[in-house]
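[audit] Reproducing an earlier prediction to check determinism. Same input, same settings, fresh worker. If the tokens differ from the archived copy the diff job will pick it up downstream; this log only records the rerun itself.
[audit] input (246 residues):
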Amino acid sequence: MVLILCGIFHASPGCAEEQQNAVALDGLWTRQETLLSIGVVGAAGLASLWDEDFRSEMRRNRSSSIDHLADGFDLLGHPATGLGASALLWGVGTWRDDPHLAQTGQLAFEAVFLSQAATAVVKVGFGRHRPDADEDAWSFRPLSFSDPRHSLSSAHTANAFALAGVLSSRSRKTWTPWLYYGLAGLVGASRVYDDEHWLSDVMVGALIGELSARIAVRFHEDNPGYFFGPTPIGQDGYGLRVGARW
């Protein structure tokens, strides 16, 4: 099976005016996102001063029961789980002719995919050593493609917060953000507990996931005809299609 990333935009034959083809990008990033990014990055930078101490404390308090819980949250936060759950919501919503559910799944899929793409860039760009590699928290090798140097940031956490952000924004219940973000926070904690990431890695991952959710939701608000999802390519391959309807 071949995975191909395709950027394809479609226009109906009846579309004649150029302004109809424009994709609205205004408002995707506001002062709120700037302040949130500065605040979280600053907090992560401060937390990095105690990354090693926090790791040591986690290692001192390990137990078999917490190990099992951490394994469960590790599975819950896996990017494949996020993409699969999003696709399931999308499919069920389409099958049941429920536009709200279908679009929620679509938004979640897009937010998770965006968060993972951004995380991959950050991982390679910083090349930070994972804590289980027996190196200190300040071991960096930028532009590294080696997994032991992909600690910053946490893809699991980014996935969990991308899902939490979309599901919270689409929910009609006031208590659901507490549930979704609470679970996302536990996913992040499990990554530190499992010695896969430093605390500051998880904080940056949470920021990437939250920003991805906000961008996906806002983009759809301004571009309701936009779509992005899996599609067959040729006879033997599958890929991802990006498009817009007008």
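[audit] rerun output stored. Observation attached for the diff report: Residues 1-20 have pLDDT under 50 and may be disordered.
[audit] end
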